[in-house]
Structure formats: structure tokens, C-alpha cells
Design brief:
With 389 residues, this protein is an alpha+beta fold. It is built from eight helices and 19 strands. It has helices at residues 66-79, 92-98, 117-125, 130-141, 144-158, 180-193, 262-279, 373-388; strands at residues 3-8, 11-14, 38-43, 49-53, 87-89, 114-116, 205-208, 211-214, 226-234, 238-247, 250-259, 280-286, 293-298, 304-308, 313-318, 325-330, 335-336, 344-352, 355-364. It has an eight-stranded mixed sheet with strand order 2-1-16-18-19-14-13-17. Strands 4-3-11-10-9 form a five-stranded antiparallel sheet, sandwiched between helices. Helix 4 (130-141) crosses helix 5. The two termini are 29 Å apart.
Length: 389
């Protein structure tokens, strides 16, 4: 049964929504045992959590930070401030810190050469080139520190709450960290916001300066439907991976970090993805703009407002079992008029047992104007009485 409650101030009040019987996520959602130190897997369509392990622990990002670098680039392309034909200089710093002599991953760009942005993107997505990242950072912001500020600004806009970026490459730096949960949010954002650029992550190989390198993602070509995204490694972070795969209408995003070898990363990623597609299926709860509940409004020409989701609300549930979900709607109440239609005022959280499997924002389904003087007086009295209680 899906029980809907609203948290207002310091108490729970039952919302005016029907009780719904739904098959839910069972304890099977947490039975997968992974060797990764940090792990997080979600259904990309609904945001349902299939697996979580130390997902909020702050860890060095290694090359997984390059997803944030790419987000800044893709955003600039989408807004028109960059084009694929723009060329970027390979400076001495980019060549020294990210080139062949650095000992890290590189696209082997020549010192002093100008490289088109499209080639640099492939140098990052396929070859994980540090020289490509630094060239982009310097070309867009002048230096690494200024570009890192762009990364952090975009991270805040996207909703990454546990991450901080210091450079474009993910190379070890004091104060640079991410979380597995944040990486899943970033990956989902890239897939949904920049579909026209997502194909770069699945390119199997790329040649630059007469040197061909294969894509480092171990799930490409081996896991059905795998089409991105990025690997990473430093001594401190261990072997990590952000991976995505789509089978039919279902897309999974998995984040793994802290593994001991490339082999362990490859095996864990393939097993986790396979388990996710076998063990779960999607169930839609609400359509976009369908009434989920109503919330009280004070001082308005209406006493309540309909709460809806701007996108369909679905959960990923276990195929083998049925359980009982509970859901609560949180908002800081009472809501105050006037309210515009589409205003984000609440959050819907869905639990299976003690695990939050879905968290999605809710918006007002219609506008509420300011009430008459008598309506506002009556609401003020009601709020005072509720406060006494």
C-alpha cells in the first residue's frame, strides 16, 4: 500500500490522496554484494535506487571528474558559446601535465598544435586524455583554476551536493572529491540533457597523431545495451567506473569505485548490470501532471493546491516478489498564497522497508491567488490554533 503523508513543520498530516495498492521493491534490491567500496545504481527513467553502498562517502574522483568537464563543454555547445569547429591550443602546460611524458592517460596531442573541439571531446570520452581536458579548460576559462570554478557552478546548478572540483582532469588535488550518488546524478543529467552528444561515449576507438586507442569502458561490447560512460583510476581512489546501459525502454546507471584491479572493475560492472536488468522491472505510479495529493494553502482564494509531478513517476520493482511501499510528501508548510502554477513546493519520497528508493520534486498543478481579507483572517486564526496544538 502506498501511504501518502505530508511533513508540515514538526508533524505528519495525512494528505487528501487515495491509498494505492502497488507491487513494490522487495529486499531483493539490496542482495547484490559488490566488491566495490562505493556503489550506486539507479533506474534512469524513474530515479529508483536499485543498489546503494557508501554512496555519500566523499572520494577522489580520478578521471570520473572528466564527466563534469564534459558537462561544461556540452552546456557551452548547447547554449551556442562553443562550436565543434572551435580549435584549442595545446599549451606547454597541457603537453607537460597531460601529454605522453606525464605518465597519465593522454590523446598524444602535439605541443603547440591546435585541435578541433570535436577531436578533443573524443580524446576525453574514448582516450581519457588529460592533455585534451587541460586544453579545453585553458581555452574556455584561461586556466585550470578558473575552469574548476565553472565546473563547481554547473555542479551546483545540477544538484551535486557532495562534490568539489579543483581541476579538469581528476588528477589528485587537495579538496577535490565526489560521491557515487553525485556521479549518478551527473550521468543522468548528461544523458537526458545532451542526447545529441551522448554518442561520443560509445565510440569504440579513436586515432590522433597516428596513435589509435580503444575505449576504456569495459562494459562496451560485453554488456547488452551498454553505451557509456567513463572509467577512472588513481592509487588513492582505486579503479572506478560510471556505466550506463539500455535494454528496451529501461536504462540503468551504475557507479562503482574503490576496486583493486581492472579485472575486478570489469567483472563487477558486468555482473551488476546483468543483475539489474534481470531482477527488476519498471512500474509507473503516476503520469505527468496527474494529481498526486493536495496541500493546504493559507491566505489564498483557494484553501488547497493540487500537487503533481512534471514527469511520469515510476519505480523499479523486483520481478520475483511483491512488497508494500510507503511514501511521504515533504513540504515546508503551510504554503503561502499567492502561488504560481508549476512552482516547486514539495518532494515525494518513496520507501521500501527503510530504504529510500525514489525521491522526486512535486510542483503546483494550478495557480492560487491571494485571498480576500476575511479569507486571510480565517486562515491566520486556523494557523494559530494549529500552532497551539
Amino acid at each position: 500500500m502506498l501511504n501518502l503523508f505530508c511533513k508540515r513543520n514538526n508533524f505528519f498530516a495525512l494528505l487528501t490522496a487515495g491509498l494505492i495498492v502497488l507491487p513494490g521493491l522487495s529486499a531483493e534490491a539490496q542482495v547484490f554484494q559488490t566488491k566495490a567500496e562505493q556503489a550506486y545504481m539507479i533506474d534512469a527513467n524513474s530515479g529508483s535506487v536499485l543498489l546503494s553502498k557508501n554512496e555519500n562517502e566523499q572520494i577522489p574522483p580520478a578521471s570520473l571528474a572528466k564527466l563534469m568537464t564534459l558537462e561544461v563543454v556540452f552546456n557551452a555547445l548547447k547554449t551556442g558559446s562553443l562550436s565543434m569547429e572551435d580549435e584549442f591550443l595545446i599549451s606547454e602546460f597541457a603537453w607537460r601535465e597531460g601529454g605522453a611524458n606525464s605518465g597519465g592517460s593522454t590523446m598524444f596531442a602535439k605541443l603547440g598544435s591546435s585541435v578541433p573541439l570535436e577531436a578533443l571531446i573524443q580524446g576525453i570520452t574514448v582516450q581519457s586524455g588529460n592533455d585534451a581536458c587541460i586544453a579545453v579548460a585553458e581555452g574556455m576559462a584561461g586556466n585550470e583554476a578558473s575552469f574548476a570554478q565553472l565546473m563547481n557552478n554547473r555542479a551546483e546548478d545540477i544538484g551535486l551536493t557532495g562534490s568539489n572540483f579543483v581541476n579538469s582532469t581528476g588528477l589528485p588535488a587537495e579538496g577535490q572529491h565526489v560521491t557515487a550518488k553525485d556521479l549518478s546524478i551527473l550521468a543522468r543529467h548528461i544523458i537526458e540533457t545532451y542526447p545529441e552528444y551522448y554518442h561520443f561515449f560509445s565510440i569504440p576507438e579513436f586515432t590522433w597523431n597516428n596513435i589509435t586507442q580503444r575505449n576504456r569502458n569495459p562494459t562496451l561490447g560485453f554488456t547488452q545495451g551498454a553505451d557509456g560512460m567513463k572509467t577512472g583510476y588513481t592509487e588513492k581512489s582505486g579503479y572506478g567506473l560510471v556505466s550506463s546501459a539500455k535494454q528496451g525502454d529501461q536504462r540503468l546507471i551504475a557507479v562503482l569505485s574503490g576496486m583493486k584491479s581492472k579485472k575486478e572493475r570489469r567483472e563487477e560492472a558486468r555482473k551488476l548490470m546483468g543483475w539489474g536488468f534481470r531482477a527488476f522491472t519498471s512500474k509507473r505510479i503516476y503520469d505527468a501532471d496527474e494529481e498526486i495529493a493536495t496541500a493546504n494553502v493559507h491566505g489564498g482564494d483557494q484553501s488547497n493546491v493540487m500537487l503533481v509531478s512534471e514527469r511520469p513517476v515510476s519505480v523499479f520493482m523486483a520481478r520475483s516478489q511483491e512488497g508494500r511501499l510507503k511514501a511521504r510528501i515533504y513540504y515546508q508548510g503551510p504554503l503561502k498564497a499567492p502561488l504560481e502554477e508549476g512552482a516547486k513546493v514539495a518532494t515525494l519520497k518513496v520507501w521500501s522497508d527503510d530504504t529510500v528508493i525514489l525521491e522526486t520534486p512535486l510542483v503546483t498543478g494550478h495557480s492560487v491567488g491571494k485571498g480576500t481579507l476575511s479569507q486571510r483572517a480565517m486562515d491566520g486564526l486556523q494557523e494559530l490554533l494549529l500552532g497551539w496544538l
